[in-house]
Amino acid sequence: MVRPKTEEEIELLRINGELVSKTLxxxxxxxxxxxxxxxxxxxxxxxxxxxxxxFIRDHGAIPSFKGFEGFPAALCISVNDVVVHGFPSDxxxxxxxxxxxxxxxxxxxxxxxxxxxxxxxxxxxxxxKLLDVTKASLYxxxxxxxxxxxxxxxxxxxxxxxxxxxxxxxxxxxxxxxGTKMHEEPGVPNYGRQGHGxxxxxxxxxxxxxxxxxxxxxxxxxxxxxxVHTADHKNAAHYELTVVVRKGRAEQLSTFDFIEKGTL
Length: 264
Ligand code: MG
Ligand code: MG
Fold this sequence. Notes:
Layout: H1 7-31, H2 45-58, E1 62-63, E2 75-79, E3 82-84, E4 98-107, E5 110-119, H3 125-143, H4 151-164, E6 168-169, E7 175-177, E8 184-188, E9 205-208, E10 211-213, E11 219-221, E12 228-230, E13 236-238, E14 241-244, E15 251-252, H5 257-260
Antiparallel strand pairs: 1-4, 2-4, 3-12, 4-5, 6-10, 7-8, 7-9, 9-14, 10-13, 11-12, 14-15
Helix pairs in contact: 1-2, 3-4
The protein binds magnesium ion (2 copies).
């Protein structure tokens, strides 16, 4: 049984949502050269992880990914053809890369979980389109996260939008409920059929997180057992927000505003 959250629980999830949003913006200062701080490209993904872990702990929270089923870091950092679950490393970002940063927090027993794909300097037009379409597909999904709809309505909205641009949807991974656990019911696939799947109740808190490929949707798991790569080694993008299902219109608990409006 999927249980909607109480308003008290939603408050704690909102605090976490704000913290992951701010953490992603803090990380973004390092990966977006010249945009906010003028930091040059060449930062390692390990440095991004360090920035995030310090920021999260300075706010009294715990980076929930670290140690989760053995994951070694505070952030999942996935560059170019890595879809999700990449390990931070000594890889230095270079102009034209894209870097997907997935961040989780735990504060007062509740979780935050959001992700953003940053361009590193100037990216080519096709890659820029991949980023824009993936993010827009997330908002298309959020539009469907209203009481009475089903998870298939979200998946259909994401899939039909992304595929209309010639991109493909990863099917092996999906969004999820969020609460005291990082992954709760229901699963929220990024593909599906309208009117199918779990029914969405008022107060249900879910993460919607399209993973969209520039090429084919085939993926494989790296030998480290974590990093998911595109089979054709073309780029993939990943954006994730946490929302509360409400009547009429979903309420966002996390936001990209701190990244995109420079308001951190
Ligand atoms: Mg995530
Ligand atoms: Mg998630």
